[in-house]
Amino acid sequence: MAWKPIVVGIDSSPEAAWAGAVGANLANTAGTSCQLVHAARDVLTAFAMAELPEQAQELSESHLAQAKDEVQHGLWGIVPPELAEHLMIRPGRPTWVLKEVATELDAGLIVLGGKHHTLLERWFAGSTALNVARTTDVPLFVTGGLRAPIRRILVAADQSYAAQPTIKTAERFATLLGAELRVMCAFEPLPILPDAPTYDVESYYTLLDEHVKREVWPLVLDPSAEKITRHGLAFDAIAREVADWHADLLVVGSHGKGFVDRLLIGSVTERLLNQLPTSLLVVPAHAPVTVKAAERSGVSRAEPAFT
Known about the structure:
The chain has 307 residues and is α/β, with parallel strands linked by helices. The protein folds into two domains: 1-143, HUPs (Rossmann fold, 3-Layer(aba) Sandwich); 148-307, Rossmann fold, CATH 3.40.50.620. Helix content is 47%, strand content 18%. It has 13 helices and ten strands. The protein has helices spanning 14-30, 43-51, 56-75, 81-85, 94-105, 119-124, 128-135, 163-177, 201-215, 234-245, 259-265, 268-275, 289-297, and strands at residues 6-9, 34-40, 88-91, 109-113, 140-143, 152-156, 180-187, 226-231, 249-254, 279-284. Strand 1 (6-9), helix 1 and strand 2 (34-40) form a beta-alpha-beta unit. Helix 2 packs antiparallel against helix 3 and helix 5 packs across helix 7 (128-135). The radius of gyration is 21 Å and the shape is elongated.
């Protein structure tokens, strides 16, 4: 199956320039196209429309041209000149501009430079990577700080419907890049609640192991892929495995929960995006019809390990 175009979100930061280089390399390896996109804040337009309506268009075009020059300046020597030359610039919020361009090009991947935001920054302005991950219908690749070839890919697969597209996408990237593949499932402990009946820990983990062997491991089609389980809270187990195995790329699934749910309770994927232990590939997973029907009818289902 041919690879679809790759869209890279670009700003004037060094992280974005590196994302451009990663996107260009992936596109070249996959034999597809790469489009750099910058979402410019056209702050002059509103004022110009009110105060100088006859000059609004001219001022807007001048502002966008200046923004394009500034961004292109940071790309020279890092991304191929022809990509920098054809940088696409549009006014609007980055999340919506990227989604719009990805839809127009029928893109198969969005690439962004990873940045660490403070809690205050996330509260007021959010993170472009987080916002894109919440809304995108195509995989999102967020580059980490290590500028090295991708030689080891770790897949953090949960025990929900998201496991299949997550593993499939990771295998495709591993084949493309000639990388080692390791698929991991984290077994989280049951919460200890007051007055709740005790449970047999050994039996609990035995049931989880049997479920993974029956439902998850058959999804791994790459015969060379290593399959492992780890015990502990999902985020801690994943971060520890990334560090211990020196993974160059971590692949996780996103279940597409609502914005309010994510804002209030957070998720492992969002913690990984915020702390970015390595480059991260977020694969959107859509619930099957049977799962959606159960949720609408109020049928209780076990929560996935992470989203």
